[in-house]
Design goal:
The chain is an alpha/beta fold and 450 residues long. The protein has 3 domains: 4-104, Rossmann fold, CATH 3.40.50; 107-297, Mur-like, catalytic domain (UDP-N-acetylmuramoyl-L-alanine:D-glutamate ligase), CATH 3.40.1190.10; 307-447, Alpha-Beta Complex (Protein-Tyrosine Phosphatase, Chain A), CATH 3.90.190.20. Helices cover 36% and strands 18% of the residues. It has 18 helices and 17 strands. The strands form 3 sheets. Strands 7-8-6-9-10-11 form a 6-stranded parallel β-sheet, with helices on both faces. Helix 16 (382-390) links the parallel strand 15 (373-378) and strand 16 (397-399). Helix 5 (106-113) runs parallel beside helix 8 (180-189), helix 6 (128-140) crosses helix 12 (269-284) and helix 14 packs parallel to helix 15. The longest helix is centred in the middle third of the chain and has 16 residues, at 269-284. The N and C termini lie far apart (53 Å). Its main location: cytoplasm. Its EC number is 6.3.2.9. It is found in: Cytoplasm. Residues 304-425 form the Mur ligase C-terminal domain. Residues 122-274 form the Mur ligase central domain.
């Protein structure tokens, strides 16, 4: 849509959630530049949001309601642009709906305003970030062959999707990582991507969805719900079981068996399944097997996703910060473990985990930890408390006061040949503002290790 600036000019828009990750800042700045009449509201205080507010200081068409929300900001407005994670039962969103004000979200609004762009959407409880990164890398490095530009958006650190309206042209491709919250926006607008990838589905965010997994799936399902006959849905084998039989789009099932020909260095069967999804997207654009192979061969993985960092005193250290549910941590442990045939086989993994509770079952997690791990070092959090109180750990474990202390203790437990795996299994809230802050601190601590 070439006249997007005109679309936003003088529109009264309430931005719900500025945040500190950069996405909220990015689309707020974009709307301000387009001449919108903005109210920015966030539960965080001015002090907490200072870096974002400083970046917006030159715009005179922004008013702020910080440290709280105000019902008055959800009346007499043309649009509410809400961030991911706004509670399902938010009284402020209910107020806006009562006043017949459209509720929009960053990525879905971009899609509505840019119908000439081809959308590749990736979701899944686990695997969406790796699949998005792989898909983007293959398509981006194939731009000359494709004859169009390839962009990335959605749930990507520091990237706001709406401002891409300034860059995209007809026929361009957007690869978007879509969590369940962003897919709420797709549901509201009754749209789905042209090519959709659904990597996995397992319980997550049950604290947000009030232990109702059907509501969680309903949001995820928006990735294919409004697809048309010419659209494509790519899934891993486990996901096929939960896809309705009456979908309109073409269903393609892929797994690790589809990518045995490729040299891929990221460990874990589930990562090969993510690769299979990305390769299938590339094949939808007629990218050759040889071209895909060359790109994959040089792909070193993604930060915070079972990422090998370095070896210190013979101890290998991995960062799996983005494993925020028990099943994700189980996947990391199994990827780095040798299944013991001998009960006396020495265990090598010292696991650093813990964090904020998400109301998920921990039984399988504890079994895997007891079987494969040499010791556990816990960081504080409500989830850590639940685990220690309700489950039996048969291996040594220690509590720590912070992440730095956890790394120090893990090093003391380790010897040459061992593995330190930082894979939290819980959310970051409590100790950290978000998972990226936790990731950055861990990387900083490990960088200093000698």
């Amino acid at each position: 849509m070439s006249d997007f600036r005109q679309f936003f000019k003088n529109k009264k828009i309430t931005v719900m959630g500025l945040g500190i990750l950069g996405r909220g800042l990015g689309y707020t700045k974009f709307l301000a530049e387009c001449g919108a009449d903005l109210i920015v509201t966030d539960l965080k205080t001015k002090k907490q949001l200072l870096t974002s507010i400083k970046e917006l200081s030159k715009y005179k068409n922004i008013k702020y309601t910080l440290g709280k929300h105000d019902l008055r900001d959800f009346k007499d407005r043309d649009m509410i642009l809400k961030s991911a994670g706004v509670p399902i039962d938010s009284i402020y969103i209910k107020e806006a709906r009562k006043n017949k004000i459209p509720i929009k979200m960053d990525v879905s609004l971009f899609v509505k305003l840019s119908p000439a762009v081809r959308i590749v959407g990736v979701t899944g409880t686990r695997g969406k970030s790796m699949t998005t990164a792989l898909t983007y890398e293959i398509l981006k490095q194939s731009e000359k062959f494709l004859g169009v530009k390839v962009h990335i958006g959605g749930n990507v650190r520091g990237v706001a999707t709406l401002p891409l309206l300034k860059k995209v042209k007809a026929g361009d491709i957007l690869v978007a990582e879509l969590d369940s919250w962003q897919l709420q926006g797709f549901g509201d607008d009754k749209i789905s991507p042209h090519i959709s990838v659904f990597t996995s589905f397992m319980p997550d965010h049950m604290n947000y969805y009030m232990n109702n997994i059907k509501n969680y799936f309903a949001d995820k399902a928006n990735i294919f719900k409004y697809q048309k006959e010419n659209d494509v849905l790519i899934v891993r084998p486990d996901v096929k079981k939960i896809i309705p039989k009456n979908i309109k789009s073409k269903l393609i099932v892929v797994g690790a068996r589809n990518v045995t020909k490729y040299k891929f260095t990221v460990p874990g069967k589930f990562q090969k399944e993510n690769l299979a999804c990305a390769v299938e997207v590339a094949r939808q654009f007629d990218i050759s097997v040889s071209r895909i192979g060359k790109i994959i061969k040089n792909f070193k993985g993604l930060e915070g996703r079972l990422q090998y960092i370095k070896t210190v005193k013979g101890i290998k250290i991995y960062n799996d910060n983005n494993a925020t549910i028990p099943k994700a941590t189980i996947g990391g442990i199994e990827a780095l473990s040798v299944v013991p045939k001998d009960k006396n086989l020495k265990k090598k993994i010292i696991l650093i985990c813990g964090g904020s509770n998400k109301n998920l079952d921990l039984g399988s997690f504890v079994k895997v930890v007891n079987k494969f791990c040499k010791a556990i070092i816990f960081i504080p959090g409500t989830g850590t408390d639940v685990l220690r109180k309700n489950y039996e750990l048969k291996i040594p474990y220690e509590m720590t006061k912070d992440l730095k202390n956890a790394v120090q203790k893990a090093m003391k437990y380790s010897q040459s040949g061992d593995i330190i795996l930082f894979s939290p299994a819980f959310a970051s809230f409590g100790m950290f503002n978000n998972e990226y802050e936790r990731n950055d601190l861990f990387m900083k601590i490990i960088k200093r290790l000698k």
